[in-house]
Automatic annotation (TrEMBL), chains A, B:
<dbReference type="InterPro" id="IPR004136">
    <property type="entry name" value="NMO"/>
</dbReference>
<dbReference type="GO" id="GO:0004497">
    <property type="term" value="F:monooxygenase activity"/>
</dbReference>
<keyword id="KW-0285">Flavoprotein</keyword>
<comment type="function">
    <text>Nitronate monooxygenase that uses molecular oxygen to catalyze the oxidative denitrification of alkyl nitronates. Acts on propionate 3-nitronate (P3N), the presumed physiological substrate. Probably functions in the detoxification of P3N, a metabolic poison produced by plants and fungi as a defense mechanism.</text>
</comment>
<dbReference type="InterPro" id="IPR013785">
    <property type="entry name" value="Aldolase_TIM"/>
</dbReference>
<keyword id="KW-0560">Oxidoreductase</keyword>
<dbReference type="Pfam" id="PF03060">
    <property type="entry name" value="NMO"/>
</dbReference>
<keyword id="KW-0288">FMN</keyword>
<keyword id="KW-0503">Monooxygenase</keyword>
<keyword id="KW-0216">Detoxification</keyword>
<comment type="similarity">
    <text>Belongs to the nitronate monooxygenase family. NMO class I subfamily.</text>
</comment>
<protein>
    <recommendedName>
        <fullName>Probable nitronate monooxygenase</fullName>
    </recommendedName>
</protein>
Length: 357, 357
């Protein structure tokens, strides 16, 4: 059967489909539980989240599903906190702050990672996934001691190999089509903008852990194509952003469902790290300053108020409208119905195919 | 059967695999005939070619195969011939010219397109494919009157629609993974860097002519994945560059077979149009001047001598080493053996899959 792979066995899920752990409030406890209850794997995107808030959400999810789910965390970096650079960045952001009538942020970023890991262990979360790198050996060892399965993110073959060497149980191969932040950690991101069609088979040939394809996959066609490339499962982000249970802002959902395949761009202007989203006025005006903006996560903190106020004041041209390159395949439906239709379509395509050949 | 699609019926070929019509001497009459004799579609890349030279090659191909083949031509543009800009560009190229001990080129570009079309009609070439745009209605009408099938190139959904509207019989959807020149003609190429996994299903949903997937496809996995995305066939370029019958320079073949998936970049430095190749010294040193270089095809003419002398003097760091993002899947074999193994592997994968499900 198409859905019985080493990945589904390892993660104890029925269908090899993972809802990406998108940060920024998209992954409500409802969407995570809906996806896991449908037999796929829901993920809480805890990236920037306060550890206590994260714990409450995990407890919510556990109330709503008895099936495995994942929590996604961001491997921390130690950014250079340069007050002069922050002042300069805030000056560049001033027109947006003015237009939204809000104050600048001081760029202080609380470190949450270690506490997040403790909460994940305390709550016995079945699966922990990582973005922006590989955690230290002590962190990996601690999670493994508690029988928590680990899933890493790679954007090159080398990053996938590093994930396997570090002891990950599976690795997401994130193609350049993917929406939101690039998981790149090993080299300049420009070199790591490799399309899913290229990245997946080359990765599969060089690691022995299950590879999860991500980037551009929105429907049954993408799921089967990814499996044919050698992936054991897929991770879908944008497809779930527009679902009813998603916590994405309504302007974000609307922007995706009305977008076209050529409307996205990769920008560091919102967070200091490259991410793919729908091009808009904020990105266009800040693009020329990309080289002088503070590193992630400082820039992310500086623009936090802008993004929030822009949503409240219905100014999507200042929002981070993360999206992959397949918006024409997006749907307004529930996450459950999306999954059910993908599973049904997958079976229809495969049956038709079997009968034909 | 997997190989019976509307595309194979239209083009009268046995397997839905097209060897891309790469310019620059890669597509010898041997490789075109080998591919067509194996039941796929060989293409002569006549892009920059003198019409007489093209005619001789077409006659060679017709001697070597009775099966359909294609000739690929470049839809011409009228570049601004600015002597001052050419002088400036040649000044920037001077260090390379000096190192190779060759003279600068005056940037005069003969217009070959109309004569190429006449020769294609005269030789009754079965299929004519286009890159860099859509030819004028009179050209299309003339080719159609002579029952020549037409295949266009698109890098966005909109470009595919424009191809269908112009009367193309099929369209290549060229994903961002693809090596060599981007076929983009409708907007800035940055917006048209869409991964194959995203581009193919979205294109299939918006045109009724057969879609041919290109970009990152090197083996049976890629062929099946493309078909599952809704493509009716694939076009492969890089996979054939390294084959024995290919006329690619030995340094070019060697660069691909020893490359990695993250080693390519998209550059306009060689030709004035964006193209994907293995990053090297020439690209790195000229990148900063990209904005002031003459348009295609003038820049292409200016660097012609450099590329030729670099190959002769074994200086691959000055050569245009066009390659897609899947070099780890490249093979040193004959084009015939490559095709036979892809066809065999495709059938093995599908049989295994059928038995499993």
């Amino acid at each position: 059967m198409w859905n019985q792979t080493k990945l589904t066995e390892t993660l104890d899920i029925k269908f090899p489909i993972i809802q990406a752990g998108m940060a920024g409030g998209v992954t409500t406890s409802e969407i995570v539980a809906s996806v896991s209850n449908a037999g796929a794997l829901g993920s809480l995107g805890a990236g920037y989240m306060d550890p206590k808030e994260m714990q409450t959400l995990i407890q919510d999810i556990k109330q709503k599903t008895k099936h495995p789910f994942a929590v996604n965390v961001f491997v921390p970096e130690t950014p250079k906190h340069n007050p002069e650079q922050i002042e300069k960045a805030n000056k560049l952001l001033q027109p947006f702050l003015n237009d939204l009538a809000i104050k600048a942020n001081d760029g202080e970023v609380p470190r949450v990672f270690e506490q997040q890991i403790d909460k994940i262990i305390e709550e016995q979360v079945p699966i922990c996934s990582f973005t922006f790198g590989i955690p230290s050996k002590p962190v990996i060892d601690k999670l493994k001691e508690h029988h928590i399965l680990l899933v890493g993110t790679a954007t090159t073959v080398k990053e996938a190999i590093l994930n396997e060497e570090a002891g990950m149980d599976a690795v997401v191969a994130q193609g350049s089509e993917a929406g939101g932040h690039r998981g790149t950690f090993d080299r300049p991101f420009e070199n790591s903008m490799i399309g899913t069609m290229s990245l997946v088979p080359q990765t599969v040939d060089h690691v022995s852990i299950p590879v999860i394809a991500a980037g551009g996959i929105m429907d049954a066609r993408g799921v089967i194509a990814a499996l044919m490339l050698g992936a054991q499962g897929v991770q879908m982000g944008t497809a779930f952003v527009t679902s009813e249970e998603s916590g994405a802002k309504k302007q974000h959902k609307e922007a995706i469902t009305t977008s076209t395949e050529d409307a996205t761009t990769v920008t560091t202007t919102f967070s200091g790290k490259p991410a793919r989203g729908i091009d808009n006025q904020f990105i266009q005006e800040m693009r020329q300053h990309e080289n002088i903006l503070p590193d992630y996560p400082i820039q992310n903190t500086l623009t936090k108020g802008i993004r929030k106020a822009a949503a409240e004041q219905n100014k999507p041209h200042y929002m981070s409208l993360w999206a992959g390159q397949s918006p024409l395949l997006s749907q307004k439906t529930s996450a459950t119905d999306l999954l059910l239709s993908i599973i049904k379509d997958t079976e229809v395509i495969l049956t038709t195919f079997n009968n034909d050949s």
